[in-house]
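testing teh design pipeline on a random one, pls ignore if ur not involved
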């Protein structure tokens, strides 16, 4: 999907299909990789990405099966497949100046993707910031769990009911409410014929086992970690942020007041300030 002022102008053939991506900032600046969650796209990172690009080389991408990236029947879009794709992209982009590994900032299921890529697939990071991540069981809003359990039934919804479901589901991610233009752009990829099937596919393929098999390893994380959480998150309660920060040695915790699950939209300035403070500790 192309949006005004936000275009992923490059492609990469990954193990799960064509990935659309782009880079902002100077090529010789320290690298930062942003990972989005579900049911979103890299569009949610546009404000932080542009701010971070004044100091960093910022990579943004749509996960396979999301946004502008490839959507197709039979596609593997589970969290481990996405973790493999992240590792492949990091190899493709290469390290930063002086062989420096990138900092990674990941939201929602992107958190599980980043954690699996690092813990299971050898992806190297200099720092890791997790924003309202899927990381601890149990996870998934009641709506998400219902959709996962009955994906074949929901696929049979008439188009207008599917559209209403997606609109309501995405609206619930924000505490103050999304701007109408933002809401429309987040919904749009899921309303095409390919997008409708992809919406249920990515939910159907993901379950708690993808965090269960790494949750016991968070104490092994040997890099600076920041956990950010929206205080008003109704998808993943803020208590999860406190639990996660306690499991990761030396992790920082930043609670962002007034923000729901989609912190990038609810409090972009506060989130960006927290990320800049965290990233600048590398100099």
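output:
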């Amino acid at each position: 999907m192309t949006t005004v002022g936000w275009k992923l102008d490059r492609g990469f053939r990954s193990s799960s299909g064509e990935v659309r991506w782009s880079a902002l900032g100077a090529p010789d600046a320290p690298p930062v990789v942003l990972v989005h969650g579900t049911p979103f796209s890299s569009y949610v990172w546009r404000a932080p990405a542009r701010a971070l690009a004044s100091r960093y080389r910022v990579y943004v991408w749509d996960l396979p099966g999301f946004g502008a990236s490839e959507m197709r029947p039979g596609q593997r879009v589970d969290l481990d497949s996405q973790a493999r794709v992240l590792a492949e992209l990091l190899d493709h982009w290469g390290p930063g100046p002086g062989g420096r590994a990138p900092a990674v900032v990941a939201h929602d299921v992107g958190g599980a993707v980043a954690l699996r890529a690092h813990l299971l697939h050898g992806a190297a990071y200099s720092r890791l910031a997790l924003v309202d991540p899927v990381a601890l069981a149990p996870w998934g809003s009641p709506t998400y769990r219902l959709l996962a359990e009955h994906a074949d039934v929901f696929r049979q919804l008439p188009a207008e009911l599917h559209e209403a479901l997606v609109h309501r589901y995405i609206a619930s991610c924000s505490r103050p409410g999304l701007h109408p233009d933002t809401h429309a752009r987040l919904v749009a990829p899921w309303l095409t014929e390919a997008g409708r099937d992809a919406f249920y596919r990515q939910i159907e393929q993901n379950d708690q086992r993808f965090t269960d098999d790494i949750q016991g390893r968070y104490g092994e994380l040997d890099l600076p970690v920041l956990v950010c959480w929206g205080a008003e998150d109704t998808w993943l309660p803020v208590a999860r942020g406190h639990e996660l920060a306690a499991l990761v040695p030396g992790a920082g915790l930043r609670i962002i007041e007034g923000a729901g699950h989609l912190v990038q939209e609810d409090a972009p300035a506060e989130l960006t300030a927290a990320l800049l403070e965290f990233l600048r500790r590398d100099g």
